[in-house]
## 1
Amino acid sequence: MSFIGTVTNYITDVTPAEERTATLSTVFPFMGIGAMVGTLSAGFLESTFGFQVVLLFSFCAELIALLFVAFFVKDVLPPKKDDQTKSILSEIKSGASVLFQDNTKGNRKRLLPLVFSDVVNMAFIMCEGSLMMLYTNRPPFNWTSNAFGFYAAAKQVAGVLGQVFGTGIIIKFIGTQNVQTDFTILQIGVSMNIVVALITAFSNSSVMLLLAIPFCFLAGPAQSAGGSLTSKLVSSDKKGSYTAFTSFITTFLAPMISSFYNQLYSSSVTSGIPGLVFIIHASALMAVVLLLRFGKQGLEDDETYKQEQGKGKGKGKVI
């Protein structure tokens, strides 16, 4: 979570505001490709060489990434004089003040939905693999681990393609690139995840479950839009502290929600309603959509929005 936030902050620091969503949608797919390759290769490595080799492969990949950062990524913002003495706790407090004390231009109601969305999504990501494997390993699916691996990879591919092409398609349809556009893209993405969760919950055959894959395409651009939104709502000098705070909140809450999902699935399978956990997740995502709608209100009268509207190609549509 912290790694993704740091990457997002760096990209938005070196990219003009009106180009951030498109730029992030170009970079983030490589993370999806990595996840897809990892999903497909992990099973092969484990069955062929053992679990230790999987961990060694992961360690080497992380080490290569760190070496690239150390030797090729340059600082773009000068460090503050007090950065050397600033503790992690004070950094988190500083980030919390951005959300709860600094309500400049009504940003609080726009940032809170993003934090809630991150927590809900991360909680499900943490348990999605194990839940889906258990869910598809029972009737009426009876999938093997290889079949599940291909299904997970197909969803990743759809998400990657959505980030690469879906973002541009949506922006072209809306006709402008600004804060409201990012909110709209995020709303569409979360709504598509609701559809995926409901299809999964009510599937009674493998064919029906596969219908969820195309909706991952339209869900893909949401991650880029979320990163772009944060960069536009939080000033560059506060993004580091804000990311530290939101990462702390997500890391603290997501595992608890994930554990609840796992416990819920165990009890619901016993009760004969294994899809209940996906219905609950869809309900949480519906709350995210409503909060995003609330956060989007008033943008037409915001001076920052008006300035960005002038940079766009036309008048945006409110969804």
## 2
Amino acid sequence: MAFQLFQGTLVENAKDRLAEIFSWSAFGGVFQDLLQDLMQAAALELEKSGAEKKQMVLDGLAGFLDTVPLPTWAVFFRRWIKAGLLVLADGIIDAVYLKFKEQINHE
């Protein structure tokens, strides 16, 4: 439950960062920051499995991508932008997890 409250705050803060002026560069930075923040928040949910945590992060990103302000022309491509970025995020989450797991195994 705590994750959902934190997730809502993170998503709203991310949207606010893009509300005044949109650029793809800013969007990329906000998306990256949100992904990292959601992953850190999900990691604190100790009773959840890795797959559940990953899905929580992806759901948070999906909520952001559904509501983030986009340029008028990009709104028509929102579902493809969302799909592509969620696939990318899925791979990033796996890569970060594997790197973290390798670091723990080497210690």
## 3
Amino acid sequence: MKPRARAKYRSCPRHFVGCLTVCQQQDMGTETSGRTKWQAALGCALLTTIYAAAAFEGQARTYRLWYYVPAAALAGAFIASRIAERPHGKPRWIIDAVVAILCLSRPLTGQPPVSGHAWFCIHALLTCRDPLAKILAIAVTALTCYAKIVLWHWDPTLWPGLAAGVISGLAWRFCARAQGG
């Protein structure tokens, strides 16, 4: 049997006694939620990979693997980050829901005529505090810009997507400031 890990007791500057401080408990929780965010990111990426491999062949499969899998990893980290950072006010949840619905509708319907990847990446970059979500947002933004500028010769949906991300991200931040969060 594996020995149980013991919490280290130390003097707490707030309580002046040997105890498991609130800060230590929060640190332990943050470590777990960090692991959860990685698991969510990898899980979403894995599910998207399985879907692409099972449902598509050739170039269609390759496209989904290099373009959609990184965005799915960002989505997993974003969702886990939002759950860990809660509570958020109702206006911020509404903004997140509208962004998610419109960005997910883009590959399914072709509407709205903005890049869903660019919109979601910039929104995540401006609103997430989690380092994993920010790093993934930067990486997916770079991938999206490369694809839309170099591979697809200045795809016209890039700039509206970036602008939509800035608008939704700033609106989310405004709501956060108005709610004192």
## 4
Amino acid sequence: MQHLYQQKQIVQNTENQIQREIQYYIYQDLENALCQLGQLEETIEQLEYQKDKSYLPIAMNKVILQANLSFGIHFDQYSQHNKTSGNFLYQCKTRAKSIFEEALNKKIIKNTHPKVKEICNFYLQNIFSQKNMQQYEELHLEKVQIESQFNQQALEKVIWGTQIVDKQLKQLQNQEYKPPTGQEIFEKIKKSKKHCEEQLKINFQNDLAQEQKQDQNKLRIQQEEYKKQTLKLQSVNQNSKKIKNQNQDLSQQNKINKVEDSRRTQYPDDNQKGAKQRNKTQGTKGQYQIIQKQK
């Protein structure tokens, strides 16, 4: 009897251990996925006005790799525990999907950029799907223009992260696992986005300052060019106005000449009388000059 009780206790402990591990993997991965998506959106916003966007595909690939890792985790959990703990796994996946959708509905993850939408759809339709996971699926990485370099700090972070996971899994053998609430995950997303924003400003502030300086120089050149064009236009307008006034004077003189010519044509006698009068005046003046000489 005692032996039977011990056997049942062992089985129960094993089931509890499996359930704790399922919870840990599903919810820890959910938290990582949402934080990574939040950081990607923050990166997209911060780099929107940066001319050099070569870092953006790297940031996207970081989240794509996380999504592929998430699928691998769910695939592994399904392969190991679907037969023995399938119902519990289903409950965890359903709750995780609900929290993921709540993050989208509350705009904690805005889900507006095409690449973010693609990744979110991959989670909703493939990772959180209740269909049988018969084969591994993954998202394709973005092409990166920057030449890859070995980063010792990144490697150390990966090793450190692996050690943390192992430590936490060992702790689950002796204690209960309390799944995080949606609100707790949302708070971590906000903190993660804030940290990402600060890091981006530090890393790109020199580039941004340089771009702002270049923009200021371009603006100054544009202002100088505008000033030159304005002065040139004013000079053209003045010359045009001067020519217009000259044309108006010439037109007025032509009108006067036409009127004078028309009057002469209409009144020829007045013209002859005027001529005779001028001749007569000139003749009288000539006779007077002769008389004066004779005297």
